[in-house]
Design brief:
- The complex is a heterotrimer of chains A (about 300), B (about 300) and C (about 525).
- With about 300 residues, chain A is mainly alpha-helical.
- Chain A contains 13 helices and no strands.
- Chain A has helices at about 1-10, 15-25, 30-40, 40-55, 60, 95-130, 130-145, 150-160, 165-195, 195-200, 205-245, 255-260, 270-300.
- Chain A is elongated.
- The two termini of chain A are about 30 Å apart.
- In chain A, about 60% of the residues are buried.
- With about 300 residues, chain B is an all-alpha fold.
- Chain B is about 80% helix and about 0% strand.
- Chain B contains 13 helices and no strands.
- Chain B has helices spanning about 1-30, 35-45, 50-60, 65-75, 90-125, 130-145, 150-160, 175-205, 205-215, 220-255, 260-270, 275-305, 305-310.
- In chain B, helix 5 packs across helix 8 (about 175-205) and helix 11 (about 260-270) runs antiparallel to helix 12 (about 275-305).
- Chain C contains 14 helices and 22 strands.
- In chain C, helix 11 (about 430-440) packs across helix 12.
- The longest helix of chain C is centred in the last third of the chain and has 18 residues, at about 475-490.
- Chain C is an alpha+beta fold and about 525 residues long.
- Classes of the chains: A mainly alpha (about 300), B mainly alpha (about 300), C alpha+beta (about 525).
- At the A-B interface, helix 1, helix 7, helix 8, helix 11 and helix 12 of A face helix 1, helix 6, helix 7, helix 8 and helix 10 of B.
Chain lengths: ~300, ~300, ~525
């Protein structure tokens, strides 16, 4: 969780990395894209992510069984032609649960990422564009939240509101947006001070048009890179809290919950703990590979290979 | 330098006020009546309406929020973070008692991470695109991608059950600390390794290294004497952040390894709805990280005078 | 997830300690006061769950929830829930609410001081200062008659006092002892070392007063909150014995090469139906719905699937042993899925669109609340209940509360139809729990009782039976009346749907020679533990 949060997301070193991203991004937007495509491991990461996303979307078509359907006659069975990855303690098909679980695990991380991005971008733009007292105030809030490692505050939110997946997501969003707000504010400031934007402003370009036309397009790509890099960390954090029993509650086939339930049986049926573990590792690996590739492509310093 | 430190300290005050506000607001999110919950714990039964009302009065829960906040911050500043519902002990005492235990495994975890990351990262840079580079990259990526709770069980299976080297869980000897620290270290080493490699590559490409090489210094002397020192500076600046991350990660690891640290304390508090403890945890950890950041900043200022002069 | 935790279940047990009547002389164990024992040897290591001790004014280190054998109470609860003398030799009712207790002589505490009436008074006054508990001990309740006789007059007429007083939570402390700081008792073990959250080491007491002395020289209890770590510790040889094995994974014990042992039933799992709820939680008020539910529950499937075979079908919600011969008076309705459908059909609940039955345009939709002791205590049971009720056309929604407090908050406002609970019986009073849960609420009564009564009290028939049980003097009369009361809630009104009887499960390595498992964890005597060689 948080140690991995930090580990997998070098972008929690905000100023440093943001500056690099920012320097790197604009002139080489398409060059960067080509670089990613050339990077075999990044493509591999992309393939994993795309595959799992597809699996989540088409879960009903792919999964051979209802993930919550009980079959008490075949408990803790090993792999077989009927049950590819075996069954759990209630005779539920593990493969089907993993396939449906992708929805919860990816979905939760995606939802959290979306919340974080929306909040972070909005506040970042407002702070950077409005400037003055509002900017100061918002940045003080950012400073305060940066004082907490993401895990601590998420734990506290769950602690106060009670354990549930929703509360875990609230806790995550409440803390993680700050990095984005910081990065976006920096980018916004730079855009606003840019000559052509200044001239656009002089020509009577409205505030809304300004944000939509000039600021957002400059901000979004960097934010997407950031979000990709952090998606893996988010997944680890959410499934970690679920593992502790603070997040998704059974019978939800969330992978962290599955792993947590499965550990009670891991000697008789190691598959209950192994498959969800492998699944989480694989998807997080995908995020990290893609994220690394994106960053390498965008960061001239790290591209020295 | 003194002025730099003073400026840093004065900057901490509003942030600390913010942290205390966060802790205070969080506590007000709790469902249910705190007075009733506290009474329920104290009496071991459901309190009557009159008892609850009396407790509300006594706890000052009906005062306006600013008054309650001022009172709470005042108490917090004098070291009074309230009393745990669960243990009946002062919250601050419990946190202070458990914190060093967590420091042990996160400190050891950090040391292990560095011990793992530094040589591997440097080797990867020196033998760029060689097998070591690829293997270390795969290791780093895997280390960063595996859930820590999963790693923990795999370690127990290997080191305790299979090999019988280490005790499964507990906290009385240094041998008990190894597996929790290793679990934390594996996660933490990945990005350190990548950073070491990148910095090393950059250093190796610089003029003075080329000069040194031209002067006929052996590869080993060169790496140890020049490159290592250069790499240590950027590495040391991210250590504070890694350390903070490990303190957070201790939450899971402590539960599995029965390590009686602050993470275990707060997870128990969450399950027991021990709100004073959770609230105390927030302000305590917020303060701790503020101090860690301060130390890192000052240390950074010492290493790099530019920071001192420009502020941030 | 934290697995099944004795601590959570025990909270209720603590609130609901039981009572009974006089004890026959046959139950008295022959003991030789002051006899020094031959020192046993060997040291055993036991893996237990979380360290649940508290160190505030109600400090309980060494006696509850993990009873380490340092302390003893006045009476002892046998594995079949009868009481027998321990530190008390005899007792009698001398006034409508006054019990005269004759204390054992020649017993000394571990520090050499003498056990006498002052220790009992100190202990009881400490209980009084903390609210008096269910026994109703007041500040003036305990009176010293002479060095070895005390009289206890609870604040209400409590016929069940002696059954309640044996709970380890009421262990006798020497005068002035604060168990947060020091642990000095009369028990077969004395303290060596307590490291909070890590381990508790006790050693055989060479001067133990009774015959039931320690079978090993030393026991170290190691705390492992995570059930999987606990099991791995057994496998790695870090401990010789583990208790609190999660029942759904009990077979894992054998997979690590250890021996699985089970004890008698001492805990239960049951579902209560809200019969007095307001819309939308009013469907439990329909007797036909309750009857159909009681017939649709397949206990064997629950045991086989959720508990992997490690439980018994429940017929009551208290351990059958505590009802003695009267246990046969209570039985749970039998599984009859077709019959359940017919009952619903006859009552106008007919199959509509899809699988869910409806009546007058209202769907038969029930909400099950899972969270007592904790949701984890019920494993996969809610999902199985959901599937079983679906088979008779009842749509069940599962709501999981994160903890007991939230569960109770919800119950207080009656928001739910089916309430899933687990609890354990830790003393000898068969009527306390039914009384607390199902008696009709009275003005100014116990708030918890009122809360349960509002949702579940079936009315006069139950009240009459439970009052008779509460006030009877003879053990057999108490048992009979309690069985009648249970029959009312289980078979006549069908407010209670018993699911499982739980027994404790331990895993023992080959180093363990003997260990008698008590039905109630907190009443475990560690003297029965012996090692090979």
């Amino acid at each position: 969780m948080a140690q991995q949060t930090a580990a997998t997301s070098p972008l929690r070193l905000p100023q440093r990395e943001a500056a690099r991203l920012d320097d790197a991004w604009r002139p080489k937007r398409f060059a960067a894209f080509r670089a990613v495509v050339r990077d075999r491991s990044a493509v591999f990461g992309l393939v994993i992510l795309a595959g799992v996303t597809l699996m989540a979307l088409a879960a009903n078509l792919i999964a051979p069984y209802d993930p919550t359907a009980l079959d008490p006659t075949s408990n803790l069975a090993g792999s077989s032609r009927e049950h590819w990855l075996g069954t759990d303690n209630l005779g539920r098909d593990i493969f089907s649960r993993l396939v449906h679980g992708a929805r919860w695990t990816l979905g939760a991380a995606g939802l959290a990422a979306a919340g974080i991005v929306i909040l972070g971008v909005t506040i970042g733009i407002v702070a950077g564009y409005a400037g003055g007292l509002l900017d100061d105030l918002l940045m003080r809030v950012v400073d305060v939240l940066l004082a907490f490692p993401s895990m601590i505050l998420a734990l506290a939110v769950v602690g106060m509101l009670g354990p549930s997946l929703t509360n875990v997501l609230i806790g995550m969003v409440a803390v993680w947006w700050v990095d984005y707000a910081r990065v976006v504010r920096g980018l916004t400031l730079r855009v606003v001070q840019n000559d052509y934007v200044l001239s656009a402003h002089c020509c009577g370009c409205g505030r809304r048009r300004m944000i939509l036309r000039h600021i957002l397009p400059n901000v979004i790509p960097s934010v997407i890179v950031l979000a990709t890099l952090e998606l893996g960390a988010l997944m680890l954090a959410i499934s970690g809290l679920s593992f502790l029993g603070l997040g998704a509650q059974p019978p939800t086939p969330e992978w962290g919950t599955m792993l947590s339930d499965g550990r009670l049986f891991f000697l008789n049926a190691p598959q209950l703990m192994m498959y969800p573990g492998v699944a989480i590792t694989l998807v997080v690996l995908g995020c990290n590979l893609l994220g690394d590739g994106l960053r390498d492509a965008l960061d001239p310093r790290q591209r020295v290979r | 330098m003194l002025r730099f430190i003073l400026r840093r300290l004065s900057y901490l005050v509003p942030v600390w006020v913010g942290i205390s506000l966060v802790a205070f607001i969080l506590a007000s999110l709790t469902p249910g009546d705190p007075a009733r919950l506290a009474l329920q714990r104290e009496l071991g039964r459901q309190p009557t309406a009159e008892e609850t009302a009396a407790a509300r009065e006594q706890m000052g829960l009906d005062d306006p929020a600013p008054v309650r906040y001022a009172r709470w911050v005042g108490d917090a500043l004098t070291g009074d973070l309230g009393t745990s519902y669960r243990t009946g002990k002062p919250v601050l005492a419990s946190l202070a008692e458990r914190f060093p235990t967590t420091l042990q495994i996160s400190g050891l975890g950090l040391a292990l991470a560095v011990a793992l990351a530094l040589p591997l990262g440097m080797l990867a840079a020196v033998y760029r695109r060689g097998p070591i580079d690829h293997a270390s990259r795969i290791l780093a990526l895997l280390g960063a991608s595996m859930p820590s709770y999963w790693v923990a069980y795999l370690l127990i299976l290997l080191l305790s059950v299979r090999l019988g080297w280490l005790p499964v869980a507990g906290s009385t000897t240094w041998r008990h600390a190894i597996m929790p620290a290793l679990t934390l270290g594996i996660g933490g080493s990945a990005s350190l390794m990548r950073l070491t490699r990148a910095e090393m590559l950059e250093t190796l490409g610089q003029d003075y290294i080329r000069t040194a090489r031209a002067k006929g210094l052996t590869q080993r002397t060169m790496i140890v004497r020049h490159a290592l020192r250069n790499v240590m500076i950027p590495i040391s600046t991210v250590l504070g952040m890694r350390f903070a991350g490990m303190l957070g990660g201790a939450v899971i690891v402590e539960t599995i390894f029965a390590w009686p640290g602050i993470g275990k304390l707060v997870v128990d508090a969450i399950f027991d709805r021990d709100y004073p403890m959770i609230q105390g945890f927030v302000i305590f950890m917020g303060t701790v990280f503020l101090v860690i950041n301060l130390i890192v900043d000052i240390g950074y200022g010492l290493i790099d005078p530019r920071i001192r002069l420009t502020g941030r | 997830m934290r697995g099944i935790k004795a601590r959570q279940i025990d909270r209720r047990a603590l609130l609901r300690v039981a009572g009974a009547t006089g004890v026959s002389a046959a139950l008295l164990r022959p003991v030789v006061a002051g006899a020094a024992q031959e020192a046993p040897s060997g040291s055993a290591r036991v893996g237990v769950s979380e360290d649940g001790y508290r160190t505030d004014e109600r400090a309980n280190v060494g006696f509850y929830p993990l009873n380490t054998g340092i302390f003893e109470s006045l009476v002892h609860l046998t594995p079949d829930y009868q009481i027998e003398p321990l530190l008390a030799e005899a007792w009698e009712l001398v006034a409508p609410s006054t019990w005269r207790i004759t204390l054992r002589q020649g017993v000394i505490f571990h520090d050499g001081s003498v056990f006498d009436a002052k220790a009992v008074k100190y202990t009881m006054d400490r209980i009084a200062a903390n609210g008096g508990g269910v026994m109703g001990i007041g500040e003036e309740s305990t009176v010293i008659v002479d060095d070895h006789t005390v009289e206890i007059t609870p604040t209400y007429v409590n016929m069940r006092l002696m059954q309640q007083i044996g709970h380890p939570n009421n262990s006798i402390l020497p005068e002035g002892l604060n168990p947060a700081e020091q642990r000095i008792g009369t028990g077969p073990f004395r303290e060596v070392e307590y490291v909070a959250g890590d381990h508790y080491t006790v050693a055989a007491n060479p001067d133990y007063w009774g015959e039931d002395a320690a079978g090993v020289g030393e026991i170290t209890f190691r705390f492992y909150p995570d059930p999987t770590s606990r099991l791995l510790a057994l496998q790695a040889g870090d401990v010789d014995l583990i208790i609190d094995v999660p029942r759904q994974s009990a077979s894992q014990v054998e997979a690590v090469g250890a021996t699985l042992r089970t004890g008698p039933v001492g805990a239960y799992e049951a579902m209560y139906v809200n019969i007095n709820g307001a819309e939308p939680y009013d469907l439990g008020g329909d007797p036909a719905v309750r009857e159909a539910i009681s017939m649709a529950i397949d206990r064997q499937q629950i045991i086989d699937s959720a508990w992997q075979g490690f439980a018994e079908p429940g017929t009551t919600m208290i351990p059958p042993a505590i009802l003695g011969d009267s246990a046969s008076l209570v039985s749970a309705p039998e599984l009859d899925v077709e019959g359940a459908k017919q009952v619903l059909e006859a009552a106008g609940w007919v199959a509509g669109d899809g699988d869910v039955r409806a009546k007058d345009g209202r769907e038969l939709k029930l909400t099950i609340i899972n969270g007592y002791g904790t949701a984890a205590d019920h494993g996969s049971v809610p999902e199985l209940l959901q599937a079983q009720l679906k088979a008779i056309g009842v749509n069940v929604e599962i709501v999981q509360t994160p903890d007991t407090a939230t569960y109770e908050q919800r119950l207080a406002v009656g928001e739910g139809d089916l309430w899933l609970e687990a609890g354990s019986q830790n003393d000898g009073n068969p009527c306390f729990l039914p009384d607390l849960l199902f008696s009709s609420p009275v003005e100014g009564g116990d708030p918890e009782s009122t809360m349960y009564g509002r949702a579940f009290a079936p009315g006069e028939a139950f009240d009459t039976a439970i009052t008779a049980a509460r006030e009877a003097e003879e053990v057999s009369d108490v048992q009979k009346a309690a069985a009648e009361a249970m029959n009312v809630v289980i078979n006549e009104e069908r407010v209670v749907i018993p699911l499982c009887g739980f027994y404790r499960i331990i895993g023992a390595s080959s180093a363990v020679a003997g260990f008698d498992l008590h039905a109630s964890g907190v009443n475990q005597r560690w003297t029965s533990l012996t090692l090979n060689g």
